[in-house]
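Sample A.
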Amino acid sequence: MKGKYVFKAHNLLLLALVALLNFIGILILQSASNMDTAIVSRQILGSLAGYVICLIIMFIDYHRLAKYSTVIYTVTIGILLAVLLLGAVHKGAGRWIVVPVLGQLQPAEFAKAGIILFFAAYLGKNQDRINEPRTLLFSAVLFAVPAVMVFVEPNLSTTLILCVIFAMMLITSGLSMKLIIAAVIIGSIFMALIIFLFSTDNYHLIPFIKDYQKERILSFLYPDQYSDTFFQQKNSIMAIGSGGFFGKGLFNTDISSVKAGNFLIEEDTDFIFAIIGEELGFRGCFGILFVYFIILMLILWIAIKSRDLTGAAICVGIATWIGFQTFTNIAVAIALFPNTGVTLPFFSRGASSLLALYLGIGMVLNVGLQSRD
């Protein structure tokens, strides 16, 4: 029966693993921030508030939330517009707004959850018409509005994450294999063109990439020529490699430490995985990645047992968000990707990210409570 909670299906393991990951993240952040009490305290408060939000959302029927998806979409557009008009600029990007009492927030993080819920409801209503050109075009336009607003902050990395989330949710809804193959071909041609323009020094012909983004891509392609820009990733690799199998130990302050030597600039956000590698070693990295893997498998299992497409799409969207963002952060830390400025879920400093992630986990758990027998 729709809306009936099956409490024996409550996924306590998912809730416990998320809490475990968050707890380890606070310890790593404490080390990465050199015991900065203000940063750690804010992270702990964000974690506690996020956990409470997760427990509340867990008992709010996702069908009821889906009924207000249009309102949620409108609010999402509103907060993104507030960033463009009133956003606080940091390192050339205006991604934050200052809220009384709460302080500085990054609306793009909450936009991920809002967009996932909206399109889960939209795809659920249009499941039988998903391959019709009109439905696809309308969904593309609806997605383009918030995506473009995030892009012009500028926040290219979050825009790419949103695109991957949207694509996976479309595939989940039953998108035609012909359309998927066509999209892959077009995307591959587009990426090949960008790589060609960079390899032939014609990157100035790409109008939508900012100067600092071009420098990051060039430093990734030609690290020896752009060592001033590539040093972050180079030092990150050195930190991870120096940890060996067992690591140098949590809260390590050895003079040979990359962290202690201040060789990393964003060690508590974008490059926090370098701290994990240096202090916990290979076994610590593997253990944390294994926890991430189990969390993703549990979310996808809930998606499989969901009663309808709306629930399944929510789970796939949240799993894609956590999985792709984790992969991107680590890929940057080991120089498989250009430096993108993506945080590591449940580890990097930032209350906005924590609150938004717990909001997503809460929706997943509610889907699980209404799973099929």
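Sample B, a different protein:
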Amino acid sequence: MSDRPVLGIDIGGSGIKGAPVKLDTGELASKRLRIETPKKSTPENVAKVVAEIVANFADQIGEGPIGVTIPAVVTHGVTRSAANIDKSWIDAPAEKIFEEALGRDIYLVNDADAAGAAEAHYGAAKDHPGLVLLTTLGTGIGSAIIYRGVLVPNSELGHLEIDGHDAETQAASSVKDKLGLSYEKYAKRLQRYYDVIEKLFSPDLIVVGGGVSKDAEKFLPLLKLKAEIVPAKLLNSAGIVGAAWLAVDRFQHQDLLVGSKP
């Protein structure tokens, strides 16, 4: 891993946050910088904001790669969906757009996958030897699958159909807020969701992230599951930290593959 801090940037529907990350500890090397997401949040407009954040931390991060999260499925640098961002992201070569705008290596990753990687390397799932599922409860439900520390990307378990509904329309924390549910009533919705998750995946550990996880003691004890279920530890820093870690891991792995060729 890099000796210098690595920049992680977390793109959301309302704000874009970034900070350099110390990869030996997973701690932020500086206070986060947050800039409002442009109202017209196209890849090109968002890239301009990302460039501002990069410029702000340029002296600390050097010329290394940057990790960027996005609320979308990402395959080979192409965004295949768009959650709470402009629909122009769908099938956009977003990683290439960012690299051209910034003039440096970029690794673009789904936001929940980044959070999962962060929790696996620094947080609630650190050194776990089995199957871990992370879910982020927020506007929707994001998910990450981690097996023995390795990320299986783009799981999208918030979109499982349960009882005829897209799961996140029934169990995201935004639904709790919209309907004014108590934690006891919200826990019943989560129970149904995690029951299905357990039947499909039989995880050893479930990690719950998202803003609502700060109140985990109010609802996690109400859930009755076979797997251990715990709150995430990195909270609002998880996306930034995971993006930075994955960026360096990706480009170091590429270097090893190139170096191994005859």
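Observation for Sample B: The domain at 6-113+237-259 is CATH 3.30.420.40 (Nucleotidyltransferase; domain 5).
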